[in-house]
Amino acid sequence: MPRTKDEIISDIETWAKNRLASGEETLYLSEVVVRDSRSVMREEENEIVNMKNKKEAAISKSEPRTTNHEPRITTPQSSDDWKSSTDLPMLKSLAENCTKCDLHLTRTNFVFGVGNPNAKVMVIGEAPGKDEDEKGEPFVGRAGQLLNKMLIAINFPREEVYIANILKSRPPGNRDPKPHEVAACEPYLWKQIEIIKPKMILCVGRVAGNNLLKLESDSLAAMRGKTFDFMGAKVMVTYHPAALMRNPAWKVGAWEDLKKFRKLYDELVGNG
Ligand code: SF4
């Protein structure tokens, strides 16, 4: 049985009193009593803090992780209810606890998508990165800022388009998505496209273009400058903004792609 604080202090005090009564080392013994009492109390405080930390860790393990304060709707892993969603908030609430692939184990947030639910233009990337995973929103880091500039350059403010990724959970270390992860996750993107009904889609990066279009040749060069059809929308592919940050010389080609995208948009939709 561990001894209580009061029992230990009482022992120390008794021992100190006996020593004092014998007239020996009075100053030293007073200090010992104070020091030992404080030490016992410190140990108890540490134990309380440790127990509190363990309890909080257990609670956070059992709860879905999030950095915002939106209430979550818990959805069973096997539920396919999201397939009958008729709008984006419904789809998000029914899909956000997805555990269909192992990426749910390492994500901080499910990164659904952001923007105008009635957008005529969708921008699609490959997967959330570190900043996106932390914030729960696609394209929010430095690459996101460059994407905003690219869109503004062709007169599409970020809030007018809808931005999403092929994967909704971050692959560790920003590795490329694996085929089984894409297969598990892409139906959510297809549902987003079905609900939004964009006229045009801009895929940023080889991985996004290749996974959306499933072409035989998967090089970016084979996709750039061409127009594809996907779920009723015209699709064009250009560089990922992160690639442009690493290779600024590619910005010339990206600008050509963006101008073509805008020109086709004006022909299809008009510029009003
Ligand atoms: S990546 Fe997609 S399929 Fe995999 S857990 Fe995340 S939301 Fe589900």
3D structure, described in words:
With about 270 residues, the chain is of the alpha/beta class. It has two domains: about 5-60; about 80-270, Uracil-DNA Glycosylase, subunit E (3-Layer(aba) Sandwich), CATH 3.40.470. The chain has helices at about 5-20, 25-60, 90-95, 130-135, 140-155, 180-195, 205-215, 220-225, 240-245, 250-270; strands at about 115, 120-125, 160-165, 200-205, 230, 235-240. A six-stranded mixed beta sheet has the order 1-3-2-4-6-5, with helices on both faces. Strand 5 (about 230) and strand 6 (about 235-240) form a beta hairpin. Helix 1 runs antiparallel to helix 2. The radius of gyration is 30 Å and the shape is elongated. Mean pLDDT is about 85; it is low at about 25-35 and about 60-75. The structure holds iron/sulfur cluster. Iron/sulfur cluster (SF4) binds near residues 99 and 181.
